[in-house]
Amino acid sequence: MTSASTPAASASWRARFAGGAALRLESLVVLAVLCAAMALLSNVFLSVSNILNILLATSVFGVLAIGMTFVISSAGIDLSVGSILALSGVVGAMLTSNLGLPWWIGVLGCLAMGAFTGALNGFLITEGAIPPFIVTLGMLGVARGFALVLSNGVSIYGLPAAIVWLGQGRPFGVPVPVIILLLTALVAHVLLAHTRFGVYTQVVGDNEGAARAMGVRVERMKVLIYTLSGLLSGLAGLLFAARINSGEPTAGLNYELTAITAAILGGTNLFGGRGSVAGTLIGALIMGVLQNGLNLMAVRPFYQQIAIGAVLILAVWLDRINSREGWRR
Amino acid sequence: MSLLELNDVRKTFGAIEALRGVTFSVDAGSAVALVGDNGAGKSTLMKTITGVHHPDGGEIRFDGVSIVGRDPGEIREAGIEMIYQDLALARMRDVASNIFLGRELTRSVLGVKLIDTSRMRSEAEAMIERLGARIPSVTQMTGQLSGGQQQSVAIARALTFNPKLVIMDEPTAALAVREVEHVLDLIRTLKRDGISVILISHRLTDVFSVCDRIVVLRQGQVIADDATRSTSMNAVVAHIVGAHSEQAS
Fold first, then answer.
1. Residues of chain B neighbouring A15 (CB-CB closer than 8 A)
2. Are B128 and B139 in a shared domain?
3. pLDDT tens, B131-140?
4. ipTM of the complex model
5. Across the beta sheet with B57-62, what order do the strands follow?
6. Which domains, and CATH codes, for chain A?
7. Domain termination site, one of B126, B161, B196
8. Chain B contact for A216, CB < 8 A?
9. Residue A190 and residue B144: Cβ atoms within 8 Å?
10. Nearest to A195 among B82, B103, B115 (CB)
């Protein structure tokens, strides 16, 4: 009962900022400091081509992180995004390269494969009453395994030109994946912040019992949320395959780590209840800049794994401190 | 005619028979107390009425229509609101979105239904004012309010959409004396406006001061159902603890 005496003016100020904006502000500061440091350490960091490189590298796990934002906001977790990415890319490549079907069937195949796998996650979580952590950890293995089985463990080369353009095209100098990332983020932002679907996603994470009592169809919401995450993993799989012009069964290894870290860095509460797509974009950029900077400084990739893992733990720690101060539970 | 009629309502959870054939009714504009020891089945019974649980047997009719099998949203739509003991609030959302939780106001932009935050806030403000609740701002995060203020939000939510029946689960358990009086006054006002109330409470003084009937639940069964004026506090206590359950059945 300590904060009950907080004056109204400062209380509403806190309410506004504890709603995620404070963390987004912190994330922006982190991003700025990181960029300044990288610019000092490397003279090519701020070049236009390098910035476009960062954005391009960010686009694939950025799309995953947007889906992850919905999942984590609902107090869930999706560990299968990297594997679904690979499975979708392989399916899209098989439909076009191996079976010779038109490019748009390859695109739809990628998205449908992702959405289907995500829906399966959601179905198992709700109907089977199995914790999301277990279902998606299992799916991490199952989807990756199917990607390897379908492709016999080798890359499937030779995608249609239209699909390759989705990964490598640069209208007005801007890579297509970057444009797709921004469009996805725009739609996802409106969905999460301004529609019933988005509000219910966050309310399910905030207080599932309250959501159910007030008439939210919680099970249906969960299936839709994991389907959305799967769909976006399929989109990420399409972008990945298009960029390297092949369906790669080992694509997206450990991407769940990057996607979760980006979402948490962006102020999405790991324990559910609130999330922000804008914040997640900033979080994804932090990860992109970090990887790019380490590459520019010729740090061995092994160390990048360490850096990403450490950032995740640090971000959750800060989130913990913030939610303890923000409101009483 | 009764507004709410329960007939032989049964509910089991695994091997546990939580409700063993509950029958009682609530008249329009009346307040019925539901009392009983912990584990007597009060909360299960209420959650069965609001659609959170589905009964395994029996009939629940509201306004003459069966509401068995409907989900909580449809039952709220029919005119039954419940103020839960844990208040059922989304504590990371503001007051306005809690009041409209499940019934968000929307406006159509390019064919997409977007949540109309400003209209929800102004209507929530009007509702809070009408109730005379002291809440600093409807934009405040609900989890930052005091216990009494949070309860005002839950009450405002229950009353905003013209309910015919309001179920209150221990609404006074966590309140200060002055706040308790406020809730009891509210129940009297609701009755005067023709709105029925089911009050679940351990505080028999509250029950005797506002309720017209007192229903005692024991081990998932109704063992007493009397008009308040024809029973006494001693008799009700005896029923609750099972001292004369022989005579009652």
1. 94, 137, 139-141, 144
2. yes
3. 888 889 999 9
4. 0.90
5. B16-27, B2-13, B57-62, B65-66
6. 21-321 (1.10.3470)
7. B161
8. yes
9. no
10. B115
